[in-house]
Every structure is written in C-alpha cells, then in structure tokens.
Write a structure and sequence with these properties.
This protein has 19 helices and 24 strands. By secondary structure, it is an alpha/beta fold.
C-alpha cells in the first residue's frame, strides 16, 4: 500500500508540473531566445498548419502576414535605394551610382547604418536595397539606383552598405536577380546572357553580397534565357542557393510572378506584394496532384522563419523610438556621401575652385538649379525628404559677399531671357544646372508658360522606362548659348550615367557630374565650387564619346517596338573592358575624376599572401599638391593570353586615402587567388590560368603609372 501511494503521488506531482503554465517543459523551444535559431525555426515550423504555411509565403502589400496564434510578427518592408519611403518625411540620400562614385566602402557602411537606423525608427524589418544590376548602357532608367559597371566595385560597395544596414537589426535586400539592366518591356523582354558572362559579371556582385551575409535577395521581372527569374530553377536553386550558398529569403519584385508551379519548384520563397500565384487553392491543387511537395513549401517557410529569428524580430520590438525620425546623423551621412560623390571631369584654366575674394557675381541657370533634384523617379524616389537644398540655395548660403543671380528657366519656349544677357556676360562665373529630373519636382522646374503644357517624359529618369541619351528639351542649346556669352561656364549634370556631349563638351571649361545627390546636394555642390571641399568622386562607369562606341550598341532595347531578346552579345567585354579590347578612347574613362591637388604613385610591391594563396599588392601614394585631398587608388590585373576572349585588365581592388600636402601613405590590398579565375565554358569550372600576370596601379582605368609582373 505504501508503494502504491508513492507511485500515485509521484504521478500527481509529475502531471501537476506538466500542467503548470510556468513549467520549462511547457515552454516551446521557439519562444526561448537562448536556443539556437535553427532549433527555434524547426520547432515553430512543426506547429504551423498547412494553411498558415501557405499564408506566410504570400505577401500582405508591404509586409508578410502575421500569425498571431503563434506570435509570428509581420515583417514590414520599405522601398529604399535612396531613402525610406514609408511613414512620412525621412532622409534622402544620394543614389546608388553616386555612392559608387565615392569608392569609399567605409562611407558605404556608414550610409547603411543610417538606413538601418531610419528603418528602426519606423519599425521596418526589411529594406528593399541595394540595387546591384550593372551599368550596361547609359539609357537604363534605373542606372541611378545601381552601383556602376564593374562587379568588384559594385559587390564591395554593396556588401559594405549591407553590413551597415544589418548591423542595426534590419535585413537588406540585394536586387534584381538577374539581367535587369534595362527597363524597356521589363516583364517580357528576355535577357539572353551566356553562363560565363553571367558568372563573371552580372551575378558576381550578388555572389559577393551573399558571401558577406545578405539576408534577402529579390528576383527581377525579366525572363533570363527564356525563363522568368522568379521561376528560374538554374538561377535560384542551382546558382543562388546552391553554388553561392544563400541561406536567406528570395522574394519576387512587385508583381513579377507568372506561374505558380514554376515559382514553387523554381526556388522563389516569397511572392510580393500579394499571394496572387502563391494562393492557397492553387497551391493545394498542385500538392494534391503531386506536382509540388509539402517539403518544398516547408523549405520556403523555414527560410522566412529563420530570417526573423536570426535578426531578433521575435524577441524585441522592431521600432526604436529613441531614434529620431529626422535623424541628424542621417543628414550628416547624406551630406558626406554627396560631398564624396560629385565628380570633377573638366577644369580648364583652373577655374575651380572659385575665390570669393576675387569675384562679385555668379549667374545660375538651367532647369535643375532650383528646386532641388534629389533623385530619379520610381520606387527609389523619396517622396517626402526631410530637408532639401537646391544648387541655387546652396550657392546663396555659401556665397558670402558674392551676388547670386538666378536666370529663369523657360522650358522649350526660350533659351535665355534677353534682359539677363548682360548679366551673364559680366558674371565672374556661370553655373548651368542640367540633366534629368524626377517626377516629384518636374513641373516645379518650368515657368508659368511651360507649366500648362503636358509633362514631357523625356525629362524623367525613372524606373519603368529607359531615358533618352540626349539631354532633354533644349538644354544643349542652353549650354552652348551660355558658353558663347561667358568663358567661365560651369556645367553641373544630374543623371544616372553619361549623356550625349558631342556638340558641346569641347567648349565647356568645367564639367561636374553630380548624379542624384540627395537632400544635401546643393550644399555639397556649393562647397566644391567654392573650394571648401576638394572633389574626390570618380566615375563608376565609362563615358563614351558617342553611343555607338558602347559595348551594348546595336544589342540594347531602346523602345517597346524592339521585341524579342535582349542579347548581351558583347559578353564579358562590358564597359572599360570593351574600350580596352577595341582600342577605343572614352571621353572620360572608368575610375576617372579630378581633384584640386595632385597625386604621385611609387614603390609597387607584389608579395605572396599565404591566407588566400593569392597576393598582397602595395603602393605608395603622395599628395604633391598644395591642399588636402583624397585619392582613389585602383588595382587592375592583366591576365596571360590563353586563346579565348578575356578582358585586357580587370579591377580587383581599390582604396581611398586622405592626404595632407606632401604626405605619403602606403596602401596594401589582398588579391585572393580565386579572384584571378575566369569561368571556363569547356570545363564548367572556375580556372586560374598558369602564366605571367601584370598588376597595374593608378588613378583610373586609363592612368596606371605603376606596373609589375608576377606568375601564377
């Protein structure tokens, strides 16, 4: 009897413990913040019903669905290549191509941190940036969002930005995978790209970003080699999740889905903005027929849950109210990015910097002088920037005692009002602000008589369409008219890339590319014009003398009437690779940009690197001028000839250094062994060719004063 009572007592106590709401035995693993994220993910996945799983893989406009029963939060998203577009006023940053023009990975990380803080201030989990498609032709409507023509520059700058964003508990999204280097007919136009070209160029930035831990990737709209990206098994499963080892969430671009079965088996994890094709009825029918497996659905859900656990979203509120919505640190980061991006391309007779003590009047002309042009259009454009400084405002604020005269822009109706002719002639400098515009401020830039006319889409550079190669309206005529009146004409360009220049550039003494400089662009421009900031930006793309010189000429869609495939016939000879291989002289080479000081290179050293089985390349840079400045040292590697087409040289590393007058610094850059490989189409493998290589170091792809050889 005593033993029987004891057994009953033990059972009662045991059941009581199990029933206790505070018992560790009753706390699910997924709710334990100390448990490994993989175990938490697996535990939560087991508790989901099929309907809940199917709900999680289709979006809810700009978020995922919450599953309140299990405490799964909705992951909120925002567009963001130039700033957070959700929740009212926010900081507007320079565009991606402007960030690339800084060639400063430390600054890119700082900008990423600022983006992450802006997201946390608004409770945003996923930032839909950075854009990482390569610059193939100047007319692409989204070049301003992207990071230039070179995969090493784009991959390294994007990775630094991503690490900054994700350090704040916000997931970054690398987009658009893949072949979305054009906006014409983007849902249907097929991008025909051979595997070698894809792996060496257009997929390389994504591979670099994945290896640096990006949490989300977004598919593009277009078909790639005949299969839409969102259902392209080779692209998504074989390459991204297989060869690259991507462990995060692969989502669609907004309404870029076309087939439920293809998407499900083709690797897409999350359909945005809604589950139109990832719809419960359609998915259940495919499950019943055996055409898809529930384990395939489980893998998508596992990735979505793992993302949340890895980023800490299950264990804390995403909104951080201690971060101001109008963050002064974000504004500073935006200003510094604009300062370092603006690229000085011509400065004849050393007109710049302007000396306030020796000038009395500056005239400001052109449609982009005021109001501010902060960015291109589409999903990248910040609708409500917190602060905006136009070129005109910036000059007025920095002018001191110099008179700033605004000459009205009258659109296509009249070049220059006659009453301003003498003022232009007598000015100490004429600043002509031209380029493309954004839809936010387009109509504000045209005076009353032109405002009544229909909006001219040729003025807009935006997502959804390609822009013109020529400057819009009669801007070239304006430039030529001003140059004829004033020999100290300074042209400031807003664009995502190059523009036609043949009929005016030779007569213009000063040319600055300001890209789209964000909310602080006017301040940064004025600082450079007056010499408070020494320009240090360098082109992240090659600027051709004419469109016919581009690698993509004849194989690039310019209108919707050009149906069929968009064939990348130039292969691996993109940008400066094309100019080098064909012996063409660019107007301005890749990596080029001028300074108010001078730099000299010396002491090239090439030594083995045991950690990567590669090399360490070092060189000394000296400021030989009379003022502080920053130089971007670029390292190019020339491979041995092997009987197949390879670039003459390729960028493999870069470093930005700040130097006082007379100061020298030595830079050292590791070149891993595998970075010297090319994709061998015959063996379907990366191959490092044995033989003699050259390392070339200098200030642009066409100015490489140091050269040394090594063998692999």
């Amino acid at each position: 009897m005593k033993n029987k009572f004891s057994i009953q007592a033990v059972l009662i106590i045991a059941f009581s413990i199990m029933a206790c709401p505070f018992s560790n035995a009753q706390t699910p693993v997924y709710k334990n913040p100390k448990a490994p994220v993989e175990e938490r993910t697996a535990d939560l996945l087991r508790q989901l019903t099929l309907d809940e799983k199917l709900k999680l893989i289709g979006g809810d406009h700009f978020s995922t669905f919450a599953i309140e029963r299990l405490g799964i939060p909705a992951y909120k998203m925002t567009d963001g290549p130039m700033g957070i577009r959700a929740n009212g006023k926010t900081t507007a940053y320079p565009g991606g191509v402007a960030l690339a023009a800084t060639w400063n990975t430390g600054l890119a990380e700082r900008i990423g941190v600022a983006f992450g803080r802006d997201c946390r201030a608004r409770g945003i989990h996923i930032l839909l940036a950075p854009g990482m498609n390569l610059y193939r032709a100047p007319m692409c409507g989204r070049n301003f969002e992207y990071l230039g023509e070179d995969p090493t520059l784009a991959g390294d700058m994007a990775s630094a930005f991503i690490q900054g964003v994700q350090s704040q508990g916000v997931a970054a999204t690398a987009k658009h995978l893949a072949g979305n280097e054009q906006e014409v007919d983007r849902h249907d136009l097929n991008s025909a790209i051979d595997e070698r070209t894809l792996r060496e160029l257009y997929l390389k930035p994504f591979e670099i970003a994945v290896k640096n831990g990006v949490r989300c990737v977004m598919n593009s709209y277009n078909p790639l080699n005949g299969i839409h990206a969102t259902q392209n098994n080779w692209l998504n499963n074989t390459l991204l999740k297989g060869d690259f080892g991507f462990q995060g969430v692969l989502m669609s671009d907004w309404q870029s889905c076309y087939d439920t079965l293809g998407m499900t088996n083709g690797g897409l994890d999350l359909e945005m903005p809604l589950g139109k094709f990832y719809e419960a009825g359609a998915l259940k029918a495919l499950l019943s027929s055996g055409k898809i497996k529930e384990t395939t659905i489980d893998e998508k859900v596992r990735r979505i849950l793992l993302l949340g656990f890895s980023m800490g979203w299950f264990d804390r509120p995403q909104q951080d109210s201690s971060i101001p919505l109008d963050d002064p640190e974000s504004a500073k980061a935006s200003l510094d990015s604009a300062r370092e991006s603006i690229t000085l391309l011509k400065n004849e007779r050393r007109i710049l910097p302007l000396d306030r003590s020796g000038i009395k009047r500056i005239v400001v002309l052109g449609p982009n002088a005021d109001p501010a042009v902060i960015g291109g259009g589409g999903s990248a454009l910040v609708k409500e920037p917190a602060h905006v400084v136009s070129a005109l405002q910036g000059l007025k604020e920095k002018a001191g005692g110099v008179e700033i005269v605004r000459v009205p822009w009258l659109g296509a109706s009249k070049l220059i009002p006659k009453e301003f002719t003498e003022a232009i002639k007598g000015a100490d400098a004429a600043v002509v602000c031209v380029g493309f515009n954004d839809s936010r401020s387009l109509l504000k830039n045209i005076e009353a008589e032109a405002q009544a006319k229909p909006r001219d889409s040729s003025m807009i550079e935006s997502e959804g369409s390609n822009r013109h190669y020529e400057l819009p309206l009669n801007q070239p005529e304006l430039i030529k008219a001003v140059v004829a009146l004033n020999p100290k004409t300074i042209v400031v360009l807003n664009a995502g890339g190059s523009v036609a220049t043949a009929d005016w550039v030779s007569s213009v003494p000063v040319l600055l590319h300001a890209y789209y400089p964000g909310q602080e662009g006017g301040t940064a421009l004025a600082e450079i014009l007056f010499g408070e900031t020494n320009p240090s930006g360098k082109l992240p793309f090659s600027w051709e003398q004419r469109w016919e010189d581009c690698a993509a000429f004849g194989n690039y869609p310019l209108s919707r009437q050009q149906k069929g495939s968009n064939t990348y016939k130039e292969g691996v000879l993109l940008g400066y690779r094309w100019f080098d291989a064909k012996g063409l002289k660019p107007l301005f080479p890749f990596g080029f940009g001028m300074s108010y000081t001078r730099f000299a290179y010396s002491d090239l050293k090439i030594t083995p690197d045991e950690n990567t089985n590669g090399l360490v390349i070092s060189a000394t840079i000296k400021n030989t001028g009379e003022r502080e400045g920053e130089e971007i040292a670029q390292i190019y590697i020339a491979p041995p000839e092997i009987g197949i087409v390879r670039p003459v040289r390729e960028l493999k590393g870069f470093a930005k250094v700040r130097l006082q007058p007379g100061e020298s610094k030595t830079i050292s850059i590791v070149i891993p062994h595998n970075s010297l490989a090319y994709w061998n189409p015959a063996t379907k493998a990366w191959t490092v060719t044995p033989g003699k290589y050259s390392a070339e170091v200098g200030g642009s792809s066409r100015w490489l004063p140091l050269r040394g050889e090594f063998r692999m």
